[in-house]
Write a structure and sequence with these properties.
Blueprint (H helix, E strand, L loop, with lengths): L5 H30 L5 H13 L1 H39 L4 H14 L4 H13 L1
Helix pairs in contact: 1-2, 1-3, 2-3, 4-5
Length: 129
């Protein structure tokens, strides 16, 4: 690389930007290919081979042909991940059912730890959840 000319530096910068932009598109396309459960495995192989042989053209064709579905698949994956995350947190926190919460509150009331008013408040809270 000849750093003596300003225009060579600009050209090098543009080439680096184009390469990084292509890598981002490539990873986006590959992740979408593996995320799509409706696309047959044979078509996935064809897309991957074309991405290796004709990288830029294939990436643009993929974005044009399957672009609208990419957002839907990405959103579905994000919703599934959020659901799994909430389920894990719920499981890890040991969150119980309303019936178990009411039974715990009843045992506290029977033991004299809480007042009947506090029991009713805990019961209402458990039933509201």
């Amino acid at each position: 690389m000849d750093w003596s000319s300003f225009w060579n530096v600009i050209w090098y910068t543009v080439m680096v930007f184009a390469f990084i932009a292509y890598l981002m598109v490539l990873f986006m396309v590959l992740s979408d290919l593996f995320r799509d459960h409706k696309l047959a495995a044979g078509w996935k192989v064809v897309w991957i081979i074309l991405l290796i042989v004709l990288p830029y053209i294939t990436a643009f064709v993929y974005l044009l042909a399957r672009g609208p579905g990419m957002a839907e698949r990405g959103q579905a994956a994000a919703i599934a991940a959020e659901k799994a995350n909430r389920e894990y947190i719920r499981h890890a926190a040991g969150q119980s059912s309303p019936a178990a919460d009411i039974a715990t509150a009843k045992s506290l009331l029977d033991a004299g730890t809480i007042t009947p008013e506090e029991y009713e408040a805990l019961k209402a809270k458990a039933l509201a959840a």
